[in-house]
Every structure is written in C-alpha cells, then in structure tokens.
Amino acid sequence: MNPVREHLVTLLTEKFEAPPGSIDDDAALEDLDLDSLARVELVFSLQDHWGVPLDDDHDSTADVTVGQLVDRIRTLLAQSAQQPDKSE
C-alpha cells in the first residue's frame, strides 16, 4: 500500500470511524458516512500532514472517492518535489 493511501485509510478509520472493510478506491466520502463538516476536516488534516494545497471546495465534495483523493495528493506531492527550492 502506498503511504498516501495508508495514511488516508488510517485517518478514515481512526478519526472518522469509517468501517475498514468499506474503504476502497471507489468508495465516495459520502458512502463512508462523512458529512460535509467531516469531509472538510479530512481535507484540512490531509493538507496539514502532507503539506499540499488541497481545495476544500473541490476535494471535500460528497462524491470524491478515496482513490481520487490519493491520486490528487500524490500528484501535488510530485509537483512540489519538482519545484526548485525558493530559499536558494
């Protein structure tokens, strides 16, 4: 399992009490019984952990899937790794 997906599954099960058996890449956040406030909190938790700029309006919608969130974070991480260090 990749670290992004592993962290997301841990957050969903431990913090948001989603049943582990219901979490797969096609599971929408709404299917995991996350209300709108929980979805925004999830996005903020992911932003804080990974240091990536997720869009809470787009990335916290009810129909966003676990797989889409994982892909989005991995893409943002790859983009930030390619950017030159501005402190140099």
Folded structure, characterized:
The protein is mainly alpha-helical and 88 residues long. It has 4 helices and no strands. It has helices spanning 3-15, 36-50, 56-59, 66-82. The model has no long low-confidence stretch (mean pLDDT 92).
Mean pLDDT comes to: 92
Round the Cα radius of gyration to an integer and report it: 13 Å
Multimeric organization: single chain
Which structural class should the secondary elements be placed in?
Answer: mainly alpha
What is the chain-wise order of helices and strands?
A: HHHH
Q: Residue ranges: pLDDT <50 for 5 or more in a row?
A: none
The beta-strand count equals 0
% residues in beta strands? under 5%
Helix content: 55-70%
| Main pleated-sheet profile | none
Number of helices: 4
Categorize the overall geometry: globular
Terminal CA distance: 35 Å
What's the short version?
The protein is mainly α.
Write the layout of secondary structure elements.
Blueprint: H1 3-15, H2 36-50, H3 56-59, H4 66-82
What brief labels describe this structure?
single chain; 88 residues; mainly alpha; 4 helices; 56% helix; Phosphopantetheine-binding protein; ACP-like_sf; PP-bd_ACP
